[in-house]
Amino acid sequence: MHKMTKKSLEEAFCGESMAHMKYTIFAEEAEKAGYPNIARLFRAIAYAEFVHARNHARELGYIKNIAENLQSAIEGETFEVEEMYPAYDAIAKLQDEKGAERTIHFAIEAEKIHAELYEKAKKQAEQNKDLEINKVFICPVCGYTAVEEAPEKCPVCGYPGDKFVEF
Q: What is the pTM of this model?
């Protein structure tokens, strides 16, 4: 692929990915505010943006076999924990942005767990086995991730474990 086309598709992938997330968040907010049809519209168009991002990802060669996809995920989570978020945290501290410091802390703690879980999954996939888990619980405040059962309260932000989102 030519460099200019690749750069354009990478930027389009980022834009579509951001639109997908923003519209998903907007749908949640519309639902909470009592606008179910607006929420449905946001969710539908968020899915369309996901389709666009997936198409770009395929064309860019981002999607590979399961073990390679897991390795990519491990590298991404590790980069966030070791480089990206520590740099962002330093900026937030320098500028005394307490809200940013809090949300960055939440993300770092969750990303550490994500990398570990992806490592376990990769080991299983390399043996042509699926990961043996029944349930995954996510704290809706900070993103803390627990497997099999939710904690009594989130160890990162203190949110009640019985309000975690189950997958």
A: 0.90
One-letter amino acid at 167 equals F
113-164 tens-digit pLDDT: 999 999 999 999 999 999 999 999 999 999 999 999 999 999 999 999 999 9
Contact 109, 140 (CB under 8 A): no
CATH number for the domain that contains residue 149: 2.20.28.10
Q: Do both 45 and 9 map to the same domain?
A: yes
Residues 6+ apart with CB under 8 A from 145: 110, 113, 114, 117, 136, 137, 138, 139
Q: Left, alpha or beta for 148 (phi > 0: left; psi -120 to 50: alpha)?
A: left
CA distance 128 to 148: 22
